[in-house]
Amino acid sequence: MAxxxxxxxxxxxxxxxxxxxxxxxxxxxxxxxEKAAFMGGAVNTQELTLPGFKHDGGGMAHIFIQANPLxxxxxxxxxxxxxxxxxxxxxxxxxxxxxxxxxxxxxxLDRTCESIAQFSxxxxxxxxxxxxxxxxxxEILASGLxxxxxxxxxxxxxxxxxxxGQELIRSMMMSAWDMVNQWFEHDKTKIHLTKYVTEPLIGxxxxxxxxxxxxxxPLTHMYPTGLPEGGSGMLSEALGRAVTAHGGTILLNSEVVxxxxxxxxxxxxxxxxxxxxxxxxxxxxxxxxxxxxxxWLADGTSTDFRxxxxxxxxxxxxxxxxxxxxxxxxxxxxxxxxDKAYCVxxxxxxxxxxxxxxxxxxxxxxxxxxxxxxxxxxxxxxRAPTGKHTVYLWxxxxxxxxxxxxxxxxxxxxxxxxxxxxxxxxxxxxxxPENILARTIHSPLDYHRMNxxxxxGAALGPGAFMYQYFSYRPIPELGRYKTPxxxxxxxxxxxxxxxxxxxxxxxxxxxxxxxxxxxxDAVVSGKVLAHA
Length: 532
Known about the structure:
CATH architecture of the domain at 3-45 and 52-84 and 229-313 and 455-525: 3-Layer(bba) Sandwich
Radius of gyration: 22 Å
C-alpha cells in the first residue's frame, strides 16, 4: 500500500527544507523525497578531498539569507534549538589587483569608503551617496524577497511613484557597466563593483544587470556576510532537524521518476524503486521546471506552455570549481590583511577583465582569469585537521563550449583548472603543488550530472535576467509558484527570489498556505496548527 502524506516535496534542497519546515510547524505531515544520499541540494558540506577536510559542495556565501526573518527572527528556531551557528568574517570581500593592492568591503560603510578612498576620494564619496540613495528602497524591497512577489506591472507602478523607485526601474534597464561609469571614475572601483554584481551569473554589460548594483551595495552594509560553523551544509542539517522535530519525513537515496496526476490534480510521485508516495494536499517540486515538464509530466499542459518552458534561458555563464586541501592558506603578496576577508577576488586590469566576458559570450574558457577564492578555514578552523586548510576556488566558464559543446568539458577540465590555479599563484605564490595535499575538480558538466536541479551546470538556476525575475521567474505562468497542474507547486532557485542561499522557500510557502487556508503569521508566532 502506498504511503501518504499531506504535502510531498521533490528534492530536499535548502529551499524545499525551508518551506517544509514551516508546513511541519503548522502541523502538516510533510515528506521530502531526495535522490542524493544527503540533504541540502547544492547547500551541502562533504569531505571531497581527504578525510577531515570539509568542503562546501556548492553554495558557500550566506548573504541574502541574513535578511530573511528565517534567520533574523529565528522563525524555525534554527539557531536557538537546532544547532545553526553563523560566523561573520571581518570583511565580506577583498578585490586584489595585479599591483598587489586591495579594496575591502566591510559591513561598516565608513571602513569600506576608507578602502575605496586609497584609490579615489571621488569614488569613496560617490559610493557613500549611492548607498544613501538606494538604502531606503532596499529596506522595503528586502522584505519582499521573502514573500510571494506581486504582479510585475503592479510592482513597476508602485516603484514609479517615487524618485528612488524610478532610479530602480532605470537600473533594471541598464547594465552594471553603465551604472558604474555614471557614478565612479577609477578603474579599480569599476572592476570591483562589476565583479561583485556578476555573482548572479549575469554579465556586467548585460542590460538589466544594473539592478544588482542597486540591490547588493546597500544589502552588503545592512546585513553581514556569514558562514555556518562546520560548513554551508549545516544550514541544511538544521533545517532537516526542524522538519523532523515537527514530525516530517526525509527520504534520502529516493529518486523520483514521475509525478502522478489523477483527474487533473497532482496526486503524488513515483520512485525509481517502484514505490509510490501520495500527497493529500500538494506536491511541491524543487527541481528545474525544464525537468518537471519534460521528463516527469509528459501530458497535462499545452504545447504553448511547454514551448515557453523549453525557452527558459540559462545564465550568461556558469563555472568550474576546485576544492583544495592545503598545508597552509593562500599567502597573498598584497599582505596578510587579505585573510580577514571571506571572499577574495584576484582580478586583472580593466581591459583584460572585460575580455573575460567576451570570451564567455563566445563559448571560450576565458584567457584572462578572475577567480573567486574562499579559504573558509581562516574563519572556521573546524573544517580541516588542526593547522590545515581548505580552499573553494571558483571561476566563470561557459556551459556550451565553442569547440566541442558541453561534452568537451570531460577532456579539458583539468587543463582549465590548472590555468585558474596558475592565475591564483601569481597573486599567492605559495599555492604550489607542495602546498596542495589534494584537489577535486567539478566542471559545469559534472554539476549537471551530479544534481538534476543544476540544469546545464547552473548553480543559481535559470538566468537572472529581468524578464526571468520577480513574478516573471522563470516565466509569468509559474511566477507565483503555482503550475497549470492543480496541486502542483514549484520551489527553489527557478522561482522568486532566485538563486543563491536565500531561504527562499519562506516566500513560496506563504502562497501555498494561503491556498490551504492556513494563517502564515499565526504559524510563525506558534499560535495556530493546521488540521490535516
